[in-house]
Amino acid sequence: MSRYSGMAALLILSIGSLLSDPVISAQQAKVATAPGAGSGLSTDKALTLAEQGHCQESISALKRAMTGQIPPETRKKAGIVGLRCSLTLDNRDAALDFLRLLGKQFAQDPDVLFILVHAYSDLSTRTAQDLGRTAPQSIPAHKLNAEALEMQGKWEPAQLEYEGMIEKEPNAPGIHFLLGRLLLSRPDVGPDAMERAKQEFLKELEVDPNNAGAHYVLGELARRDEKWDEAISRFSQAAKLDSNFAEAYLSWGVCLVTVKRYEDAIPPLRVAKRLTPGNPAIHHALATALERSGHKEEAEKEFAIHRSLDSATPMAPAPEKPQ
């Protein structure tokens, strides 16, 4: 269920108290105006001004430097300084421009990547603060807060958030799914949590029949109980609703292999292979389906790919051939 997991931990942990913390101003420094500064600044002059706090006057020249014929190290410095200035001014459009240029020109530079991580996290936090400031009692704001609580392992407050949202707007799309997911994720669940989670996913489909994630999780629950027909139906529906849902195609194919419908298993497994060619489990399942349906030569190729990928990840156990 990783595909439908919550947002990145760096963002979540930074906004754990979104609805209660005061809004922090993005522009934390008072920016001075440089006498005589203009759009015709040289790169060196723009860097000097920016480092002296004259961000407003230097951003345009720093952006031009990123596309100019100057040494890479100078372009890198211009991009980093320009990004910092943009964030100081809370000029998010300019910040995104610098992020795009730095990411494209220095995609393998660890110093740049480190800065990009923090800049994207900063922008995400500011947007979350915008939401908390402008609509603190809205469903999206409560969802964001609940996801933050989940990531911090605060299961009970997070569950109360979701239940409160459902009480307020029982037909809001996505909330029943999130509550069901939380019930399956809690380490301290009671004996009835699994059934309650299933009911939440079914309620989600009443609200939104096109929720591929709900179909998928219901398929996994059915597969765990060896209800193969139900699992196959759920996985196939999830795949039809989301044509890029590789896990749904894989689970669909694996269930078909389990019930010895080998020919039927080949098409969804081929799609899963196309979507995530680096997953060894897909190649193993496809090889099994091909072998059992008489396609020996192609099956051997898939088994070979599986062995190659599996040897590159020795900690991952090799799946057994379905009997």
Number of helical segments with 4 or more residues: 16
> Span from first to last CA?
25 Å
Structural class comes to mainly alpha
The count of domains is: 3
Biggest sheet overview: none
Question: What is the helix content?
Answer: 55-70%
Provide the low-confidence segments as ranges.
Answer: 1-38, 315-323
Mean pLDDT: 87
Beta-strand content bin: under 5%
Q: Note the run of SSEs as H and E.
A: HHHHHHHHHHHHHHHH
Count of β-strands: 0
- Rg estimate, integer Å: 26 Å
What best-fitting shape do the alpha-carbon axes yield?
Answer: flat
Write the layout of secondary structure elements.
Blueprint: H1 9-14, H2 43-51, H3 55-66, H4 72-89, H5 92-105, H6 110-134, H7 139-151, H8 155-168, H9 175-185, H10 193-207, H11 212-224, H12 228-241, H13 246-258, H14 262-275, H15 280-292, H16 296-312
Helix pairs in contact: 2-3, 2-4, 3-4, 4-5, 4-6, 5-6, 7-8, 8-9, 9-10, 10-11, 11-12, 12-13, 13-14, 13-15, 14-15, 15-16
